[in-house]
Amino acid sequence: METTSKVPTLTPEQIWRAADYVELVWQDNEEAWSRLNEFHRDGEELARLMGEFGALLLADYLTVVPAGHIDCESGYVMDKLVTVAGRYLKRWCYSGGGAQFAYTAAGFLIECMQEVDQVHQFLSDVRGDAPRWPAAMTS
What we know:
By secondary structure, the protein is mostly helical. The chain has helices spanning 12-27, 30-40, 43-62, 73-93, 98-116, 119-129, 133-138. The two termini are 22 Å apart.
């Protein structure tokens, strides 16, 4: 199992699906729970999707080091922390915990997003960027 790549391995449809799932977890209401049950039927597949999506968010959205600081020691440390956190999240989500792990991973990502922006706006931006990812995968 490859867990160190920073290149996104998700299709736009997978990114949209993962963003929808995270948004439903964030909403935490009766209607959302009804829809979450549909997602949870996918168990292991959902957990793997959340691991990949989480690593993508951590590396390319939540902890981007500004261009002027890439060569700084703090930029280097941030890059290493993101690499480890993304790798650990993916490894954890691939370990067989199914829907429970997916739900917990979504909660972790929500906490991270709330530190940066409003969750709904953040996910909207990620959804809008999704069509660009296939080009990044083939370059």
